[in-house]
Amino acid sequence: MIATIYYPDTAQLKKLLLRPSGNNTAVMSDVNTIIRNVKEQGDKALLQYNRQFDAYTSSAIEVTQDEWRKGADNIPDDLKKAIEIAIGNIETFHFSQKEETKFITTTDGVSCWRKSVGIERVGIYIPGGSAPLFSSLLMLAVPAKIAGCKDIVMCTPPGTTGVINSAILYAALRTGVKRVFKIGGAQAIAAMAYGTETILKVYKIFGPGNQYVTAAKMLVQADGVAIDLPAGPSELAVLADETCVPAFVAADLLSQAEHGPDSQVLLLTNSEEVIQKVKSELEDQIKCLPRKEIAKAALVNSKAILIKNIDEGIHIINEYAPEHLIIATRNTDELAEHIVNTGSVFLGNYTPESAGDYASGANHTLPTNGYAKAYSGVSLDSFVKKITFQKITPMGIGNLGNTIEQMAIAEGLQGHARAVTVRTKNLKQ
Amino acid sequence: MIATIYYPDTAQLKKLLLRPSGNNTAVMSDVNTIIRNVKEQGDKALLQYNRQFDAYTSSAIEVTQDEWRKGADNIPDDLKKAIEIAIGNIETFHFSQKEETKFITTTDGVSCWRKSVGIERVGIYIPGGSAPLFSSLLMLAVPAKIAGCKDIVMCTPPGTTGVINSAILYAALRTGVKRVFKIGGAQAIAAMAYGTETILKVYKIFGPGNQYVTAAKMLVQADGVAIDLPAGPSELAVLADETCVPAFVAADLLSQAEHGPDSQVLLLTNSEEVIQKVKSELEDQIKCLPRKEIAKAALVNSKAILIKNIDEGIHIINEYAPEHLIIATRNTDELAEHIVNTGSVFLGNYTPESAGDYASGANHTLPTNGYAKAYSGVSLDSFVKKITFQKITPMGIGNLGNTIEQMAIAEGLQGHARAVTVRTKNLKQ
Questions:
Q1: Does B402 touch chain A (CB under 8 A)?
Q2: Which domain holds residue B418?
Q3: Is residue A275 part of a domain?
Q4: Active site (annotated) includes residue B324
Q5: Nearest residue on chain A to B245, alpha-carbon basis
Q6: Which of A14, A87, B73, B243 is most buried, most CB within 10 Å of its CB?
Q7: Please, which pLDDT band fits residue B362 given cuts at 50, 70 and 90?
Q8: Based on the domain organization, do B255 and B331 belong to the same domain?
Q9: CATH number of the domain within which B249 lies
Q10: Quick one: B275 and B134 in the same domain?
Q11: A318 in helix, strand or coil?
């Protein structure tokens, strides 16, 4: 079910590691229309799309305090406790990402510093469908709150009934989400990007979604609204040697494969025995999975690659830039030093990727599709702007003035030089 | 030459602070064609565009070592010294932005950390034209080098002669730029985004440019290539009370206005006298400027607004989110605490904005057009990815396993739960 490739050469590898490129011209055109309609008609368009796409006919598009309370009451205690532990860990790790303001003197009398300020209004999209992704809400709303974002709003599809999943409502309540709207798809992204009578315009939009949501996020980004990350199908690469536990590796590959038929999983190992054992474990373990059909489809696109040595594996990883990387080898920490392109790394035999999906504390919103070559995953940074400040004393402008004037004149910008001269002249009077 | 508005109400303000919205549909279509041609024909397309747009007919598109050396030799010593001081200050401030890796234990046996890794390949675009912006090159290449970016490449238009400005070449040499190509406009962005026979494909593209360059950056971004920031005309707001020095304020407004006819300048003050004096200074000072026609055009779009009090000014600033903000009032530091939306702040009477443009050490690549509500200016962060790591011990997965399983099952992702169970079961054996 998973293809095995033996010692591929560079050309083969290049082909093997290509991501499927989606053609979404048709989607783009539909989404453009949706965005235009939401911009022009506001709530009216949202109600119409709720009817059209979700068969939800009510005009009640905001979750009420009462629904919110009921939802929260519906959560089993065990799940509530689990969510609390996850929130605690996510808080701990993201709180550690706070940056202290450092005041730097670059020249005598010239100080520079920068200060992190929470983005005032952020929007979070949480998809509906088969898996109610309250974990994604935790990964976005917890750092938003730590960052000091004032207005955190959320949209999620109403479904036919307008009843929002209880765990999602509980997570929203616990993480400081202010308002939850029953709007799905591209129309939700448009509503948060431009605002409607009911929905607050936000400055940055976060969260996963289908190809309509993704297209809408790209389009509003091109119009100046910030987004978290470009999106693509989820991915996991496992780098393993003979010290790995094949049953664990297979379970990890399956956990990734069950995300969707377009998920990508990749096993890189220098041990043929590991490949055989992992394949056999995959056959066994997949039988127990409720989402086995999805996992099977994903495995068809996936590869087990026998490599010459672990160094070659590191090289391939850095070329591929997977969203998630498990390193199940000897000397994991030493190898990890050489990884430069990936979203998040899971070290050793007892660190399943699902730990990071839910509760280790690290963020699970990560760059897919090779974007890890330039992008970081979501972190506290994603919810702040870092404003720079500079303060120059009369002595400082005396010290630095000539430098500025020289450079400004060389760039042909005399007005820039004069803004200095008018001050230094004044000093000498 | 600059319109004065007395005590505007909220509706008036909203209108006053609107940015001109550019319609660039025609540009987009042209740029799409350019990008497609560069993708398909590589260097051949670049040579053709050099002929077409710059009347540069040579096929020599890379700056040679010899040209580089000659350029550097051409720089007057004073300018060389000024550039060195600027580099030193930019280095000092950006070096202070390095983040130390903190190892965080979120649960006993569960550690998370993140590590900053330089983006391996970055591209810098430096426009040609009337002002040779070597300062922009410093602002981009200096932090790129500190971040550990391996390949820093640069494109700049050849002009008809193919002779690149000496200060640009010197700055490139001093800051670790590896290769400089004589390619301008949208074709340069396409070449760096997709690579050609000669030009290295990069992962992130930085730098200012005209509307073609801007359009190309937006288009390659939508295709997954990271860019520094969305672009717009440069802006300065000055918040002043009667303690300001009108001659300095006028010089600062003019330094901004000389950038381009679409530059925006804004004076907010609670003193009518300040407005009168600044206007009179503007009239006087503009006469000395070589770029007075440009500055005049920019001032036509600009405003001096008389406000009720400084608090109202702070409110207006946060609504407008200017790229640059000068605070020339009493208690500048205290007021600065309340600024949440701006790119960079200049405090007090002796801190001209041009100091930040060249040499204070802070970065001058900043969010325009209100983007400061969600975006930060360029900093060391812009040149790194922050990769997260997690490492869990057998005890750690014992402690956290149940939490992960509960959440995974509630999301309907049994495979995720099983990746934990297969491990914790093993612990108990």
A1: yes
A2: 394-428
A3: yes
A4: yes
A5: A423
A6: A87
A7: very high
A8: yes
A9: 3.40.50.1980
A10: no
A11: helix
Sheet holding A3-6, edge to edge: A3-6, A303-306, A264-269, A235-240, A324-328, A344-347, B384-392, B110-118, B104-107
**Residue of chain A whose Cα is closest to the Cα of B343:** A387
| Same domain as A266, residue A162 | no
Quickly state the pLDDT bin for A24 (edges 50, 70, 90): confident
Mark which of B227, B259, B275 sits at the end of a domain: B227
Interface check B274 vs A, CB under 8 A: no
Q: Is residue B180 part of a domain?
A: yes
Whether B176 and B195 map to the same domain: the answer is yes
Whole-model pTM over 0.95: yes
Note whether B76 and B171 are same-domain residues: yes
Say if the Cβ atoms of A291 and B110 lie within 8 Å: no
This complex has an ipTM of 0.96
Beta strand pairing call for B303-306 and B324-328: unpaired
Q: How far is B381 from chain A (nearest CA, A)?
A: 9
- Shared-domain flag, residues A303 and A222: no
Q: How confident is the model at residue B376 (pLDDT cuts 50, 70, 90)?
A: very high
Q: Counting Cβ atoms within 10 Å, is residue B295 exposed (0-12), middle (13-18) or buried (19+)?
A: buried
Lowest-pLDDT range of A235-249, B11-25, B276-290, B343-357: B11-25
**Which tokens is B96 given?**
């202070």
Per DSSP (E only), the strands in A242-375 are 264-269, 303-306, 324-328, 344-347
A387 falls within a domain: no
Tokens 């600027």, residue?
Answer: B86
pLDDT digits (tens, 9 = 90+) for A278-301: 999 999 999 999 999 999 999 998
Min distance B404 CA to chain A CA atoms (Å)? 6
pLDDT of residue B429: 56
